[in-house]
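Quick one before lunch.
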Amino acid sequence: MLQRSFFNLSVPKFYYPSILPDRPAVQTIPAPEKTTLFLENRFDPTGKQKPTTLSVGDEVKTGQKLTAPDDPACYITATVSGKIVAIEPFDGDYGRQFTAIAVETAPKDTHDEEFANLIEKPTLDLAEQFLAAVPGAPQLALLANPEKPIKTIIINGVDKDFLLCTNQYVIDTERQALKNGIRILKEISGIESIVLVVNETHVRGCAGLGADVKMVADEYPAGLPLMILHKTLGQTLPPGKQFEDIGVCFFSAEAIASIGKAFETGRIPNRKLVTVIDPQGERRLVIARIGTPIRLITKACGITTGNGDRIILGGPMNGTTIYTLEHPVMPDTDGVMIQNSNELALSSDYPCVNCGDCVRICPALIQINLLVRFLEAGQFEQAADEYDLYSCVECGLCSYVCPARIPIFQHIRLGKYELARSLPGEPQSVEEANAESE
Ligand code: SF4
Ligand code: SF4
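Model of the iron/sulfur cluster complex:
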């Protein structure tokens, strides 16, 4: 009988690797010949309804809003000037549907001045109308919902996955833009309670930015929103609720710096800072226009890819695999990771062997070896009611340590997604969703 030493029950720890003191130089990727912008089809999950009044052949200017006709709140901002050469539906993850708008880049930027002409009087409405698609993708609409008033804004200066350094770089290098962004956010929202969350390593110099600075440990997953909520406000999110239901909303540090720059310069920021992790685990930072194909980023970083290699948007713990290098950088793409096919940790259909590794590492203290059985069987309600599905902070550590290679984290995400779809008021089918949009 195989026996394990008691001392082998220790839990591995993952520390956010700091980019200090050898902060890498940021590599700038030139504007691509063609950018692709994703406009989310919020009202038509089939993607059949034409979500934009734009047509192939139309000219667009840098900074111009590309809007869905039925829903002005749904827009993307052109990040180059040029001519629209294609408009096609695109299937995202978890049922999300987008319209991909491809723009052939003109040699020079011609700027749309609509935003610049209005910035003298910053308002929440103005920010909401023009800045939802800046780097960091701030959900400004949350601040304007009278049914769910926000009392506290949390600015997250910690990256959402292990190995990413996008937000810590912003914290270290864009203090003036952050300070401006925080000042404007207070002014336009009237919310005084603004908390800036940073790692222990990056806290120095954060005083004086206009926010209440809170520090979290350098150990992953201390920077995930549910962990921050508990650590800094002493609150937990009730099952099935969103942060706005308890009067809290999160923005990334990059999003706030983007807001600061936009109101300072009159130009809508369009370059995304992305952490690139190569197959050897080396990290570098690049800056590229939103809409740049990932292919150009890996090429600029000297990373070659072959059949079966894995491309991940995000980081190793909770990133999402994509299937083509033509996928563009999006406003919330903080990281791109490439794994070689011969080094992939493949998932499997092996059963749980009850080793307990997942239970020991879970920061939410969930009985995962039991939870996963209900998730695998599609019994999501029971998983939520009896096995704490909603306590999961979505760190991905359980999948990482599971010796049976069970894709636990993916099961968890799917379970939460299916339960969210079954909430009263949510469309249960394509027909229902279309009926609602009429
Ligand atoms: S269940 Fe897994 S993903 Fe969720 S908090 Fe626990 S270890 Fe993290
Ligand atoms: S780590 Fe994997 S095999 Fe071990 S108890 Fe958890 S689910 Fe089962």
